[in-house]
Amino acid sequence: MNTAISSTATAAAPVSGEAAQGSSPRSGVPADASRTAISVKGLVKHYGSMLALDHFDLDVHRGEIFGLLGPNGSGKTTVINCILALLTYEAGAISVFDRPMTPVSYDLKRRIGVVPQSVALFNELTVEENIDYFCSLYIPKREERSRLVREAVSFVGLEEFTRFRPGKLSGGLARRLNIACGIVHKPDLVLFDEPTVAVDPQSRNAILEGIERLRDAGATVLYTSHYMEEVEQICTRIMIMDHGRRIALGTANELKDMIDLGERITVGTLDLEQDTLGRIRALPFVMQADYDGRELNVVCRHGDRNLADLLDLLNASGTSTGHLISRPPSLNDVFLELTGKALRD
C-alpha cells in the first residue's frame, strides 16, 4: 500500500448534514463565510534549516471549494499535513470546525476525508473490499458499511468493477477508487491533493463533477492541483502560495485583476507594414506586439477599448484582417506574473 498522506490515517468521513451549503462558479450558492471549516494562523514549519512555512495563514469557509495553488516545493503538502496533525510545527495555530486540531483529535479526524496524490490502495483487495476496509476504520456496523460502500461505488461510477483488483484498473479508474476510499464515510471536509494527475480527460471530468457533487451535498473541499483550468472551473476562491507564504487570494477574476495583463489579441493578417507595427507598439495599452507574417499578436493592459482601438488603427492603415481572437488572462498568467515562474516549475 502507498501511504503518502494516506486516506486511512486521517480521513473522516460522502457527507454529513453538519456542513454548510456549498458554492461554486457554476452553482451560484454562496459558501458560509461566517463559519470557518479550516483556520490556519501564523504557521511556521522548518525542515532542518529550510523554512517550509513562513507565518502562513489560511481560512477556508464552510461549503466552498477552495483552491490552493503553488509550484513544487511551495509548501502545499506541508500545509495539508499540518492541518491533518501529521506534522508538528514551531509556531502558529490550526483549528478545524472552530476546534483546535491535535494529533489526538479523533472526533475531528472522523469528519475529514483525504484523497492523496499518490494512490493509496491495497492491491490484494478488490475494489469493493478496498472501499469497505477504509469505511471500517470509522463505521463498525457491517450493515451500515455495506450501504455506504454501495453509495461510494455508485458515486464514482465503479459499479462494473467491484470485483476487480486495483492492478487491473486504468489510471483514471484507480483515481476514482482512491476518491471512493477517502469519502466513503461521508466527511464534512475533504482534502484533495492533485487528484487528477495522469488521468484521461473522461476520468478527469468525472472526478471534477464528483467534487462539485460533494460540495452540493454539503461538504467543504480544499483542492490542490497543477491544472489551472480545473481550479478555475470548480473553485470558489483561490490562494496562490510560494516559499511558504501567501502571495495572493481571491476569486479567479479578482486574481486576474491583480496583474497588468488585460488580454491577448491575435489578428490574422498578411500585409502588416513595419511602420504600422511600430504605431501599434506605441499605443498606451500595448505591452508587447509581434508579427510573424501571418498573425499579429498583441499583449494588452487592462482597458475597455483595447480591441476597438487596435482595429481602428489597422483599418486606418489599410491593413487587411482575417480571423480575430481576444483572450482574457489565464490563471497561469497570474501565477507567472506574481511568482515569476510557471505553476509546474
Notes on the protein architecture:
- This protein has 345 residues and is an alpha/beta fold.
- It has two domains: 7-256, Rossmann fold (3-Layer(aba) Sandwich), CATH 3.40.50; 260-328, YebC, transcriptional regulation domain (Alpha-Beta Plaits), CATH 3.30.70.980.
- Helix content is 32%, strand content 27%.
- The chain is built from twelve helices and 14 strands.
- It has helices at residues 7-10, 76-83, 106-109, 127-136, 142-156, 171-183, 201-216, 228-234, 252-257, 274-282, 306-316, 331-339, and strands at residues 32-47, 50-62, 65-69, 91-96, 99-100, 112-115, 189-193, 220-224, 237-242, 245-250, 261-268, 286-291, 295-301, 324-327.
- Helix 5 (142-156) runs antiparallel to helix 6 (171-183).
- This is ABC transporter, ATP-binding protein.
- Residues 38-268 form the ABC transporter domain.
What oligomeric state do the depicted chains represent?
single chain
Helix share, percent = 25-40%
Spans of at least 5 consecutive residues with low confidence: 1-24
Beta-strand level of the residues, as a percent range? Answer: 25-35%
Would you identify the CATH H-level superfamily of the largest domain? Answer: P-loop containing nucleotide triphosphate hydrolases
SSE ordering? HEEEHEEHEHHHEHEHEEHEHEEHEH
Q: Which CATH class of the largest domain? A: Alpha Beta
Which CATH architecture of the largest domain is right?
Answer: 3-Layer(aba) Sandwich
Structural class: alpha/beta
Total strands: the figure is: 14
Provide the residue-averaged pLDDT: 89
How far the N terminus sits from the C terminus, by CA atoms, comes to: 29 Å
Outline type:
elongated
CATH fold-level assignment of the largest domain: Rossmann fold
Strand order of the largest sheet: 6-7-8-3-9-10
Major pleated sheet: 6 strands, mixed
* Rg of Cα set: 24 Å
Number of H/I helices: 12
Count of individual domains: 2
